[in-house]
Write a structure and sequence with these properties.
- With about 250 residues, the protein is an alpha/beta fold.
- The protein is built from nine helices and seven strands; from the N terminus they run H-E-H-E-H-E-H-E-H-E-H-E-H-H-H-E.
- Helix 2 links the parallel strand 1 and strand 2.
- The radius of gyration is 17 Å and the shape is globular.
- The two termini are about 30 Å apart.
- About 45% of the residues are buried.
- Keywords: Oxidoreductase.
- It comes from Occallatibacter riparius.
- GO terms for molecular function: oxidoreductase activity.
- InterPro entries: NAD(P)-bd_dom_sf, SDR_fam.
């Protein structure tokens, strides 16, 4: 896919670690200049430095994706540095502890929705303004298998991730005829720091998760990154508004 991303520019949120970092690295290794954004400045600076040390074009941007001014500045800085924006992976997100719906707090609903759903809309808003001016671009939003199914105790998280898919489909229809594709990935249980933290707090959850994994293992961040790159490539030019499960067969059951 290298020719597809040479002289292209990619933006990845939540790029300090996990799936975001894997996607940023994959874009860079396929020839793109990459803007890595994360609220953890030290983490994302280190990630960008590592990529530059390997000869790639990369810049770090500290961004709280729940802050619209910072989101707008993130996109503007990317374009100012690299001249355009060809691909964006709106990946930043948080997990929510398992809890019965009746016992959940409104503050937790607001927190999870702000990061996992509203921020995706805000990122798309400013990415699309640039891509609309260019007449081209590809956006991938990170939903989850939680955007495709329901699970007990996960109502808040799943509500936000279902919302990402609805947002993706509607926006995709608005821009499909204007050279811009918008899709979503729906990862299953991926071996990332966020999942490791969740399992540390809920150690018995791993046994239940593995029972439901047809492939018999957790996914890797690199496997999700491969799906993201394909959705941003010309090879996926006819894929519009799709929610691609990358879940080892979990939702096929």
């Amino acid at each position: 896919m290298k020719l597809w991303f040479e002289n292209k520019v990619a933006l990845v949120t939540g790029a300090g670690q996990g799936m975001g970092l894997a996607a940023a690295r994959a874009f860079a290794e396929e020839g793109a200049a990459v803007a890595l954004a994360d609220r953890d400045e030290a983490l994302v600076q280190k990630a960008a430095e590592d990529l530059r040390a390997e000869g790639h074009k990369a810049m770090a941007i500290r961004c709280d994706v729940t802050n619209e001014q910072q989101v707008r500045a993130m996109v503007e800085r990317t374009v100012a540095e690299f001249g355009r924006l060809d691909a964006a992976f709106n990946n930043a997100g948080v997990q929510s502890p398992a809890i019965e719906t009746a016992d959940a707090e409104s503050q937790e609903f607001d927190r999870v929705t702000a990061i996992n759903l509203k921020s995706v809309w805000m990122c798309m808003k400013y990415e699309l303004r640039q891509m609309r001016n260019q007449g081209s671009g590809a956006i991938v939003n990170n939903s989850s298998i939680g955007g495709l199914i329901g699970l007990p105790g996960r109502a808040i998280y799943h509500a936000a991730k279902h919302g990402v898919i609805g947002l993706t489909k509607s926006a995709a229809l608005e821009y499909a005829s204007r050279g811009i594709t918008i899709n979503a990935v729906c990862p299953g249980t991926i071996n990332t720091p966020m999942v490791a933290e969740m399992l540390a707090k809920e150690p018995d959850a791993m046994k239940d998760i593995m029972k439901m994994q047809p492939i018999g293992r957790l996914g890797t961040a690199e496997e999700v990154a491969s799906a993201v790159l394909w959705l941003c490539s010309p090879g996926a030019a006819f894929v519009v508004g799709h929610a691609l499960a990358v879940d080892g067969g979990f939702t096929a059951q």
